[in-house]
Amino acid sequence: MFNSLHAGREDREATMVNLKNVSPPSEGIRYNQGEITAVWNGEGLGPGTLYIAETCVSWFDGSGMGFNLKYPSISLHAISRDFNAYPGEHLYVMVNTKLNGNCEKCAEEEDNESTDDDCDADSISPVTEIRFVPSDKATLEPMFSAISECQALHPDPEDSDSDFEGDEYDVEEAEQGQIDLPTFYNFEESLSQLTLEGQATLERLEGMLADSASQKHHCMAVVRPEDTPTGCCNESGAVGVSGQFEDANVDHCLEGVPTYNEHLLVAFPSHSGPTDPKQSQWVEVG
Amino acid sequence: MEVSHSIRERTIAENSLVILLQGLQGEVTTVDLRDESTARGRVVNVDAFMNVLYRDRRGRLSQLADLFITARNVRYVHIPDHVDIMETIQTQLTRIRRVRNFAGDKGGRKEYQKKKK
Fold first, then answer.
1. pLDDT tens digits for A95-148?
2. A164 — contact with chain B (CB < 8 Å)?
3. Does residue A286 contact residue A264 with C-beta atoms inside 8 Å?
4. Helix, strand counts (H, E) of chain B
5. What is chain B's Cα-based Rg?
6. What's the pTM value of the predicted model, to 2 decimals?
7. Cβ of B109 and A82 within 8 Å?
8. Are A107 and A121 in contact (CB under 8 A)?
9. What are the phi and psi torsion angles at B103 (to 5°)?
10. B62 contacts A80? CB cut-off 8 A
């Protein structure tokens, strides 16, 4: 299907894909597999190693040259067993950005293809198609699941629907009849269950726990309005993980002074979605 | 059809129409993508599609075993005709509340400390 665009290009011209020196992600690796051939927009890149980590999907060949794919740029991924599309079962990934000098080729294809007068951005958006062809076909399903799980860690920050931060109403209070059980409650109502301090604390703790699953020490997290969380703790992957809290940009700092002087015992069994493997933790703040 | 384990996700679902899509698990639906491709298959989960016949925007057909489409690339989800929308939403809401009541019933984990009013 997609390869018919590149029919006739059997002559191996110099690779148009600008690979760069890539090293595997240092942590948060959900899956890695060698002997995986990458095919970039129909162009084979040879065998290499694929790393599926919580921050990105990374592939590089024997000489260390390769590429990283950030999850927000992955439009979709799939297992393809369709031999009409490609002669071999593989993992198909569609990336919605121009990558590594291929944009020229993409733009050309778009111009040749578009016959309609519709000029909205979507129909001329660049798309990169990557296939990961493993030698061991049994690895396709775990690879697919690993990318799916990591994709769930990166919800779309532009999606206003997911901009909920409040917790549910207090179940225990409801049980004891201390508050009325609403049939429906909206965002404001649920948020008002927490004081202002409580809300901020909740955000802070959620962000802290997201990163500190493997940390031995407790970090005090400070909420900042800036975009990029800078960490002076030894936490890699902080950018990827804290991105899931759209409204809490968390800065982790070893010398952070507690902003709030409360004592809370909180358990967060899951804070990043149903696929989060982290166990619940009891955290004492104070 | 399980309800999400996350309070956050249940809250989001309870307050938006994604709860309808979650009620479509097991149904065969068609999804129009942002780039004007369409995908048709059985919904495993709102976040994942399975066994999809994927028709790309160039009109070509491709069979994909498992397909995961990120939310922002979904333009339309075609609700099957036989699905009663209001009933599906109500059923999902009931499921969410059932999970919540279990949590408060001296069972399950207490996720938040009781707040003093």
1. 987 655 333 333 334 444 444 444 444 445 688 999 999 999 999 999 999 998
2. yes
3. yes
4. 3, 5
5. 17
6. 0.55
7. no
8. no
9. -65, -30
10. yes
